[in-house]
């Protein structure tokens, strides 16, 4: 997938027309700028067309229509659906009933798989490899859906992960359970950063920060003091 992305980025003009005659339904029922415009721009650049709905109150969902029924209807209009929804699991329901491909652009605090792919692609381009990397996930590990998807993606490539949650923002148990049972992850707990240093987790190759709001940066551990100045980490910051 990453090799294909490289090839397409090097020949953008040649890609126009790949989706000619195709329609993408862009269903964003939560605020979005980058994700929504990324998908819609991509479809236009590939020669396709976009139909969109963003206000739940302006759809039949406001009249009591189920997500499953909406999926069936939209599936009859479009060739692919991109959906963001505040309900966890909404994308799965749409995929079950639409009858066409569905891309999850974020479902509540559950997951954001396409963001995880973009993040991993960025890390690979910056570090040239994914082999043997050590990456810290910092901040909101409880509600950050990008974090949940990224954890599983990193685990699939055997990347070592250092979890540094903010107060009360620890990783949900169901994410830990999936990490250990489905991906074979092994957990080690450290009470202090010094223990992580002794455990060989530092230096890091990247730090992924996810405050759920700007004020939460103040709740997060002091990276400059605890990591960079103390251990000389050369880290790529992804926020």
UniProtKB/TrEMBL annotation:
Residues 1-124 form the Aspartate/ornithine carbamoyltransferase carbamoyl-P binding domain. Pfam families: OTCace_N. Signal peptide: none annotated. The keyword Transferase applies. One of its GO terms (molecular function) is amino acid binding. The keyword NAD does not apply. This is Aspartate/ornithine carbamoyltransferase carbamoyl-P binding domain-containing protein. It comes from marine sediment metagenome.
């Amino acid at each position: 997938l990453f090799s294909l992305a490289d090839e397409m980025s090097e020949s953008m003009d040649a890609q126009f027309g790949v989706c000619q005659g195709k329609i993408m339904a862009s269903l964003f029922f939560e605020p979005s700028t980058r994700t929504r415009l990324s998908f819609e721009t991509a479809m236009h650049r590939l020669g396709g067309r976009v139909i969109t709905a963003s206000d739940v109150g302006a759809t039949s969902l406001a009249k009591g229509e189920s997500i499953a029924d909406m999926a069936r209807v939209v599936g009859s209009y479009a060739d692919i659906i991109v959906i963001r929804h505040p309900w966890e699991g909404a994308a799965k329901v749409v995929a079950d009933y639409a009858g066409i491909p569905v891309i999850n652009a974020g479902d509540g605090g559950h997951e954001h798989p396409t963001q995880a792919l973009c993040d991993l692609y960025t890390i690979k381009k910056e570090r040239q490899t994914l082999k043997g990397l050590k990456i810290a996930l910092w901040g909101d590990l409880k509600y950050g859906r990008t974090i949940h998807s990224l954890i599983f993606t990193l685990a699939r490539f055997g990347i070592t992960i250092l979890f540094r949650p903010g107060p009360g923002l620890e990783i949900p148990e169901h994410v830990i359970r999936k990490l250990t049972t489905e991906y074979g992850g092994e957990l080690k707990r450290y009470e202090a950063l010094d223990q992580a240093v002794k455990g060989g987790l530092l230096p890091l190759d990247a730090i992924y920060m996810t405050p759920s709001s700007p004020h939460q940066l103040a709740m997060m551990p002091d990276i400059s003091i605890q990591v960079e100045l103390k251990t000389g980490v050369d880290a790529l910051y992804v926020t």
